[in-house]
Amino acid sequence: MNSDRTRYVEIDVKSALNKVTSAQYPDMRWSLNPYRGCKHGCVYCYARYTHTFFELDPDRDFSSVVFVKRNLPQVLRQELRKRSWRRERVSIGTATDPYQPIEGRYRLTQAALRILRDQLTPANLITKNTMCLRDAELMASLHRAAGFSLCISLITIDEALARSLEPDVPSPRQRLRVVQELARLGVPVSVAIAPVMPGLTDSEAQLRDLIQAIYDHGGRLGYHQTFKMYADTRKTLFAWLAREHPHLLLWYQRVYGAGSSAPRAYERKLAARIARIHDAIAPAQVDFPPDPVAPVGQLSLGL
Ligand code: SF4
After folding, report:
1. Residue from 36, 45, 201 whose mutation best tests the ligand 1 pocket (most atoms within 8 A of CB)
2. What is the CATH classification number for the domain harbouring 151?
3. Residue 77 belongs to domain spanning
4. For 266-286, how does the pLDDT look when each residue is reduced to its tens digit (9 = 90+)?
């Protein structure tokens, strides 16, 4: 099926949940991604490598060939009905945006949220797309039943820079409005400043304006993460820098040419900067309430 210039390929999957074993994410137990590839096409996207599993080009094809896991709801339902399922938290959108435009047609993310709620399984979800508002009531009901939190990814409030880095994503202003609306509807919502792009989005003034805007819209800062280079992102990002910010290309090539991380000194300075700005702006933060505790074992269906 075709929509605009992106090719959508329906596939069947054997499993919906992926066990997360990476030491990098000690708190993450299971991930779920209804799509593979992402129409949003952010130049810094770390998930591009997932397209190499299909012998596709991570630069050219990641946003132009998107796989749709059409049987994901059925498979997820079977997995969550197993006696062995411990109702551990499921993280949605770790390698794709679950609310990219094609979700409007397939509604796989919506179906997954409904199944998670019916099976009393807590979840969290990260997105850049305003389409998540469509499912606000469902998210709130999942939160009441088992626990749920939403994270909006927003790295700058500079509209032009955002459009250049994230060409197919709703604007920062629109995403802030989503934060405001979801908070009003009782969905626990935070903002991730991830990735912070060295030399592009990391100045004192930029971060202050962004964090101020988050709190002005009733949100809270979830976390930040400095840009990390994955092998298959290099080509896309370097080409973009050469075109849009040539004065930064050499620095990025030196730092990220072979390695994946920014220098430790940079990381420390950035963390201190964000903490200082955050402490000056944020009201005393109350943690989200703990998840309701669900009994472990087989459930009767429906709430
Ligand atoms: S929205 Fe997320 S998954 Fe999609 S291209 Fe951007 S960074 Fe990658």
Report:
1. 45
2. 3.20.20.70
3. 2-281
4. 999 999 999 999 999 987 766
